[in-house]
Queue: 4 jobs
Job 1
Amino acid sequence: MPEQYQKNKAMKKLILFCFLIIFISSVDAQSASAINSKGFRQAKKGNYATAIKFFTKAVQIDQYFTDAWYNRALAYSKLKEYSRAIEDYTKAIDLRPHFKMAYNNRGADKNELKDYAGALKDYTKAIELNSGYAKAWYNRGIVRMNLQEYEKAVSDFTKAIELEPGYKEAHINREIAETKKRTNKAFSP
């Protein structure tokens, strides 16, 4: 009987320990979420440096909190800290591989750093994840204009317009790309 008592006592301790671990993890996740929300509110007010502090605290509490990584990347982008934003978008993508907006936004920051090949790859991935994502088509068109691939740019802007007929910037940039395409043909040998 004492042996059975010891086994029951050990089992109770193990169950209590598991419960405590689950409870502590739950509290941390709730804390990370609450802190992320505070950062989000600061970002909405334009207080990006303060928002970054909250998002940083959230990922310190829960390193798997994809939204906090993504939100911190957005804040870094607003402060034009593109390399840091790219790192955080990459972490968010590692945690959520089908995160089309993270690919799109990472592409935008790569474009800002004139990494056109990297931006093109990210926009293409965002389009693969959601072919109805007009913003990714538009952004890829912008990169193709930067690469002087005007015919492909026209095609991407046209697709963005098909998806969102009122997409004013896509209409404007399609006209610019068409003009540059004609100009290049006129001056080609």
Note: The chain has two domains: 1-84, 98-189.
Job 2
Amino acid sequence: MSKPPDPSLAEQYLAAIVQNADDAIVSKDLHSIVTSWNPAAARIFGFTADEMIGQSIMGIIPPELAGKESEIVMDCSPGNAAASSMTTVSAVNKWLVQ
């Protein structure tokens, strides 16, 4: 039987998964400000982490879907469990990405 992985390495494992994922992984605060942006998000949306972190996520959400962002933020308010969500957003080239 093998030993379980060292718990002190868990954060490094998670960071490696996020950095090497093929899917965009983006986090934001309750004011819709981007707090993290992985390399796949940069590749898919055409904006680097430096360009997006500290900016509103609304910059990549089409105006007709702005209400959906408000719903997501309300669902993530204190006391509510955050749910995974998928939506349509705009890439730097103005293509819509689902």
Note: Residues 24 and 80 are 23 Å apart (CA to CA).
Job 3
Amino acid sequence: MTDRKEISTILKYKLGYPFAIFSVDTTKIDTWVETLDLDTFVTDEFTHSLCRTSNGVEDNLKINYAPLLEIVGEYVHQYIDEMRPMCEIDVEMEHPWVNIYGHNGFQDCHDHQGPGDNDFSWSYVHESGKSSIIFKNRNATNSDMNLIHLLDEYKDQFEYVPSKKEKGTLYVFPSSILHAVTPNKSKLFDRITFTGNVKINRI
């Protein structure tokens, strides 16, 4: 019997979980972003990460993310459909936010489950800077750490750094996966990402 993982053109199985990485036409999103004054609704994070964010900012709730969610939602549905739902489900796209990483801006390892018990998450790269997202295996052991230096097959068992990271890249992944953002080494260009969470429920 053919393994589902072998025939999927969308899903990439890394760290034991299904990921999807899409190339998105940036034209409509760029036009929408031009209508925003990002500086009016982002603030410095409470950590030392040098990342500015609109997550948790009251003014972020006033932003009309519908144009972005309409585009991203199509890809999220493709991702979920590829996992073969066993019943009719409702896909709820939660209110997104924006992160801006200046020179050396980064984000520590975290997940997106949060108090809302989110199921999936997405992150759209509007500007890449010189930085990338990195996914971590929360169950990796010291033995795994050693084996990644000895066995090629173990490299993706400890962490996964997608090779695709340029502007227009959309990542979709389970909210439970630990991930971080590497420091932006560009002194000229910020890394700007739009991110959101997804819940699914039986209808």
Note: The CA atoms of residues 92 and 110 lie 22 Å apart.
Job 4
Amino acid sequence: MKSTRCFGVFIFFIILSSILQTQSGNAQLIRTPGEKQHYLLTVNLNQIHSIKEVGARYDNKKYNYVMINVLLSNISKDTLKYLNMTCSWNEAFTTSNKAIKIAGWSCDSNFPTVYAIPPGVSKTFTITLEIPKEQQTNNFRVGFYLIKFRGYSAFLDFDKFLHSKKSYENCLLWSNEIPIPK
């Protein structure tokens, strides 16, 4: 029953977005370095916590699970409105090292939502990283796909983003360098 309702809500947003897109044009995404300078992504290196080591899984590798806090800061004079999912918001994150993954979870109700961060305020995301045990060298960064909300047609852009993140690399904000925890 829940999945049918969620699917219905999703279809509603797609239809609403397509109607509004014909009226307002495509949503604008962050595309210039000048616009990115108003937002900051940081990881507090003093708050990195190893959770556990996991033995062989489907790929016969051992993994360390590490929790980090990532802060998305709005250092502009305007409220930042951006799109993300209600439950699987971790999908908006990536790492500079493709061997290091952002751990996910299952969701019962998951749809695009507009979030707001007032000027001078930060939002903290607690993320679990999945790091292969043999990956013990090199620093890495965490990235966040910042898709600004500029009208309801942005929901169509967000749906495209979920299916092809590669074309949205211009929207990536990168954190400070993170050493791989031992």
Note: Strands lie at 39-43, 49-54, 63-74, 80-85, 93-95, 101-102, 112-117, 122-132, 142-145, 172-174.
